[in-house]
Amino acid sequence: MDIKQLKHALIDIETQARQAVEAASTLEQLRRVRPRFLGRKGSLGQLMATIRDYPPEQRGLAGQTLNAASQAVTRLFADHQKRIESSEVAAEASRADAFDASLPGVRPPLGNVHPVTAVQWEIEHVFQRLGFTVEAGPEMESEYYNFEALNIPAMHPARDLQDTFWLSNGMLLRTHTSPVQVRTMEKFGPPIRCIVPGRCFRYETVDASHETTFHQCEGLVVDRNISIANLIAVMRLLLREVFKRDVKIRLRPGYFPFVEPGFELDMSCLICGGSGCPTCKKSGWVEILPCGMVHPNVLRYGGIDPHEYTGFAFGLGLTRLAMMKYGVSDIRVMNSGDVRALVPPSRLAGSMIVEKQ
Ligand code: FA5
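A: This is the predicted complex of the input protein with adenosine-5'-[phenylalaninyl-phosphate].
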């Protein structure tokens, strides 16, 4: 048999092997069919024995050709064996009385979580996929980080925008998560991509949308060539991921001494559908996402050269976002301890339950 005939013979053997393998529906049948092809006396084994009959210059090629065919047939058996095994496992598992004590258990989701926690987990998940780190800062903060390093010097009227709880030791309860901006710049230097979820405190009158204790989530990106286009793209992505659809937003100029330019990003109130209610103060819009390009002075305070780096920052109103997402119309419910406001595991994204347990 010359090499050409050998190749034809091998194609035939492979075809027969495939048919025989596919006809086997149990491991026992498969085991019985194997020697016909792969055993020493099987069709491939017999051809192996003829290698020595080839002229020396053809022996190498004949050997390679046979080995390739032998490997292909071995693979046919191995693949079909896996198929039979998994269908046997599936059949076993679907039996009403089947119980495999050796399988790892599925951890049942336990307990309900606070709406703010649920939204915070979701946001962390979204941003971690974008390569952001999750940072934290102290709730008892110095005047320097809460105001001065954010370009709000003493006597600046912007300090009055955030009524502050001052402490007897000269410190304060942070009025926003923005102090962690300069802390993070000092700690890591550029490039920075981080979010900072956390609790904030303001000495103000409580109503349906204002609390003295509430949550924000700061976001900070500092790198070369960061522009407003990056800022808007990230804001849109964030809202789309949290609400799982495009929500109506509006962008208007906003003043914060630590950004330039600054914006207020409002979303259409999901409690009233935009027609006006106490939650949105009858405006149809909820202030949720103030943001802007990091002011050069703030970069300087953080030890970063504003000629080389630019950045954007945002201060998401986490508590208000949670209200919109879970339909809580009065912010006072959030700190009330009312268990009816909690979110059951069935309403959390599946990946979050697994990750956070
Ligand atoms: C700030 O706190 C800025 N630090 C945000 C910022 C960060 C701007 C980075 C630019 C760059 P403002 O005071 O608007 O901004 O608060 C931000 C959000 O927190 C508001 O949109 C609102 O959703 C929420 N918020 C503010 N005060 C309260 C309150 N008393 N109760 C509940 N939520 C509040």
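The CA atoms of residues 24 and 30 lie 5 Å apart. The chain is about 40% helix and 15% strand.
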